[in-house]
Specification:
7 helices; 76% helix; 0% strand; elongated
Length: 126
């Protein structure tokens, strides 16, 4: 009975540790992970809405990411797992990705507004 209690206590302590996933040998910087997740999100959105675009340009999502960031699948998976194990860090990374999308959206919306108002009298825009 004491052995089972000791085992459960040990398991509890191990599961409550700060970050049970070991640090990868090739740890990518948080900003690089933001860039990777941003790019993956763009590629997945493109694949979902216009899959022929990736096929027409012979782009394979995983291969594109690995070549662009000069990493392999193991490095990516280890880093993904490492950051995902720390909920605060992972949330911070995804918050930066979302902020980047919002910034891009705002910039493109302003660009569209500027293009539509070119050649239009200012009284017509108001």
């Amino acid at each position: 009975m004491k052995q089972i209690l000791f085992l459960l206590l040990g398991l509890l302590l191990f599961s409550c540790s700060k970050n049970p996933v070991p640090k990868p040998d090739n740890l990518l910087d948080e900003e690089v992970m933001v860039d990777i997740i941003y790019d993956i999100s763009i590629l997945q959105a493109t694949d979902g809405s216009m899959p022929y675009k990736l096929t027409d340009h012979n782009i394979k999502m995983d291969q594109y990411i690995f070549e662009k960031y000069k990493i392999d699948s193991i490095t990516y998976r280890e880093n993904q797992r490492y950051y995902a194990a720390d909920a605060r860090k992972y949330k911070k990374i995804y918050k930066k990705v979302i902020e980047r999308f919002e910034k891009e959206n705002t910039a493109s919306t302003q660009g569209i507004n500027n293009e539509t108002s070119v050649g239009v009298p200012s009284s017509a825009v108001e």
